[in-house]
Design brief:
Number of strands: 3
Structural class: mainly alpha
Number of helices: 16
Shape: globular
Number of domains: 2
Strand content: under 5%
Distance between the termini: 22 Å
Strand order of the largest sheet: 1-3-2
CATH superfamily of the largest domain: MFS general substrate transporter like domains
Helix content: over 70%
CATH architecture of the largest domain: Up-down Bundle
């Protein structure tokens, strides 16, 4: 990667880390720290933890499309400003209802699509996957960092301290966008980086993508559902909030070892490991419904949860990318992200509601049952092949005969033509596909 691409990758990844910290840091602490509010309830805790997911889900695609009209940086900066305002509302809240409102405002700063599109604009096609990977890794890193930092920050500065800190981080990110992130120089073809409205209905009904969208909804529903309960269990086991980071560090270390084992097994049996991971989640919640009165037992069960969660979280986006038709990855990933955030919202609401009105053991019974249904859903998921994506920029309209010849080249699996962008998207087996031959078929200079 050149200097511009490196600067793009790490500045946008840093923005992602700071912003996602603000969304995630309250997850391991809110159920305990919010008890001083006069209207405290398990339902409102669940709504506050998952509330950001609803506005993220609704606005994710529209904000991405808006960035195509008015520019990436204005949308990113505006989203960060909305996030900062939401943080300040929550920091100054005197009731849980206002914390919930603040969280909904935080989620309204839905800038993931615009960030990915800007990353595409600033990078060459052959380097783009590396940049996207760096940004993707930063998202996972921010979640684990939030689990460790949340209990430490709240023990010293209280819940409002977390919200003030995240608001300040969002304002810092605006400065990074203005002065550190490079200005757009290349305009990446939209289809593989940004949602395109005309593609959405077709992709919503794609049965393979729908299975993955439902899967990520359930996955994020389960993790949000879990974090409405775990802090309370740790307190009941005489672990003060300031020491919860120790429990999470043990869990994260154990789950990383488990993840390495699963990934090594998945090289030969990807679908089997995926099914085992979902079955593992069903087992986790069944065990939680039976007992959670021992700290060793609880840490072992949560470690199993994160092992399975991490494997699925890492592999689902790659599967979406592989299954999405050529030139439509941006739209497919936009829908996927919306389902992901919607799952976080549903998980918070369900966990809080069931805990308050029925009892928390029924939360785990429901979760285990949903995992069993999930197993049936993904049984029909086809194995995905590792195909590479190529983009060919054309000057004039391509004759039909040339497109036919292109589709018949060795290794080519899918061809999509976007006439108004003068772009042809390909999905092909890199081991068999000859890019120079494709350019000759289209009459492009080498």
């Amino acid at each position: 990667m050149n200097s511009t691409e490196l600067r793009t990758a790490f500045s946008l990844a840093f923005i992602y880390v700071l912003r996602m910290l603000g969304l995630f840091m309250i997850m391991p602490v809110l159920a305990i720290s919010a008890k001083h509010y006069p209207d405290y309830s398990a339902f409102l805790v669940g709504l506050a933890i998952g509330g950001y997911g609803l506005t993220q889900a609704v606005l994710q695609i529209p904000m991405g499309v808006l960035s195509d009209k008015i520019g990436r940086k204005p949308v990113i900066a505006g989203g960060l400003l909305i996030f900062a305002i939401g943080s300040l509302v929550a920091a100054n809240a005197e009731s849980m209802q206002w914390v919930v409102i603040g969280r909904f405002l935080q989620g309204a700063g839905a800038i993931a699509g615009a960030i990915m599109a800007l990353a595409g604009d600033l990078t060459r096609e052959e380097q783009r996957p590396k940049v996207m990977a760096i940004i993707g890794i930063s998202i996972g890193f921010s979640f684990y960092l939030a689990l460790l930092l949340g209990p430490l920050v709240v023990s010293d500065y209280g819940l409002s301290g977390i919200f003030y800190a995240t608001g300040m981080l969002a304002l810092l990110c605006i400065l990074l966008v203005a002065f550190v992130v490079p200005n757009g120089k290349n305009i990446a073809p939209r289809g593989d980086t940004l949602p395109v409205v005309r593609d959405l209905s077709q992709l919503f009904s794609n049965p393979q993508l729908l299975r993955l969208n439902i899967s990520v909804l359930l996955l994020h529903m389960l993790i949000t559902l879990l974090f409405v309960q775990i802090p309370v269990f740790l307190i009941d086991l005489s672990w003060p909030l300031s020491t919860h980071w120790k429990a999470y560090s043990i869990v994260l270390f154990a789950s990383i070892i488990g993840l390495v084992v699963l990934m090594s097994l998945a090289r030969k049996q990807q679908k089997v490991v995926m099914l085992l991971s979902v079955a593992g989640l069903a087992l986790v919640f069944a065990l939680m419904a039976i007992d959670h009165s021992s700290i060793v037992y609880l840490l072992l069960v949560i470690s199993l949860f994160f092992t399975c969660f991490n494997y699925l979280e890492a592999n689902f986006p790659a599967m979406v990318s592989s299954i999405a038709p050529a030139g439509k990855k941006g739209s497919a990933m936009g829908i996927y992200a919306s389902f992901q955030f919607l799952g976080a919202f549903i998980g918070g609401v369900l966990s809080g509601s069931i805990s308050e009105f029925i009892g928390n053991q029924w939360v785990f019974v429901l979760a285990s049952g949903l995992c069993i249904i999930w197993l049936l859903i993904i049984q029909g998921l086809s194995a995905t092949s590792r195909l590479k994506r190529y983009t060919l920029n054309t000057i004039n309209q391509t004759p039909d005969i040339a497109l036919q010849q292109l589709s018949e080249l060795e290794g080519v699996e899918d061809v999509t033509v976007v006439s108004d962008e003068q772009v042809i998207y390909l999905k092909a087996d890199a081991k068999r596909f000859d890019m120079q031959q494709a350019r000759r078929v289209l009459g492009l200079q080498e």
